Amino acid sequence: MDTIRVRILITCALMFLTNLLCFSQSKIEKIDQSQISSVYNRSSFGFSIASYIVNKAKATPQSGAYHLKTLYKHGFEAGADYHIYISNSYSVMVGLHGGASATNYKLFIPGSDFNPSIGGNWNEYGPAEWAYYMSVPIWIQKRLFTGSNGFWNVVAGVNVRYYPMRYSHYGFAENISDVNGNQTKVLEIDATMGNNLRPWLNYNIGGGYSLLLRNHNYLQCNLVANFSDKKIIDGTYQINVSGKPQSTGTFSANMSYVGLSFSYLSTGTNKRLRKILEEKMKNGN
Fold it and tell me: From which domain of life does this come (predicted)?
């Protein structure tokens, strides 16, 4: 019963908001296009959320016959943005975001390589390990208008990242039992994650399309690439197979990525258009 009541209330609220939007829109459309264009030329606030594919960690073998493999993983980032108007074609975007990037690994060892046997192959996909961060993107945007319904854009700039801990431990340890019940640590990754509380620079480039909505705000979708040369994760790994020499290597990750960013840009145009409309109606009386 409570669920039905909630649904009825939500439906009524949506109908009310829809009617209100249509009523407001019908009044605003009475203002000529030159007045609408004049109120777009201002700085504005927005919100963005991004989903991306993180570059694989780098596992470099140093000794032994067994090598650790790494995988592409996923990440996300979201936050508030301020778009500083420069001209009809250019603006500067400054944001305050938070995000998380994941890394992972895989390791395959034939069961016949173990002595004594473990009863099968070792084929392990490690759990995703997350690195959380804060981010301040500073981008220049170039707008390419092709019509009245929106514009294409390209962006480029830097991204100041910050990991909120001096260092934290990053690692995995995988143990197995042989047919005799003896425990062996097959894999151990021993690394640190962080940058000693110092920010570092990433570099961004991207582009996409901004669609003009009926409420005179923009919905933007961009393909964005993030490049970093900072090893935010850095350490070593060891692989132990009974009866075989130990395999070792280095393990690091810079968290570069490619992904899609969705932004909602509030221009404040409706509020200013209402003010123009009120003044026009007042003068008409």
Answer: Bacteria
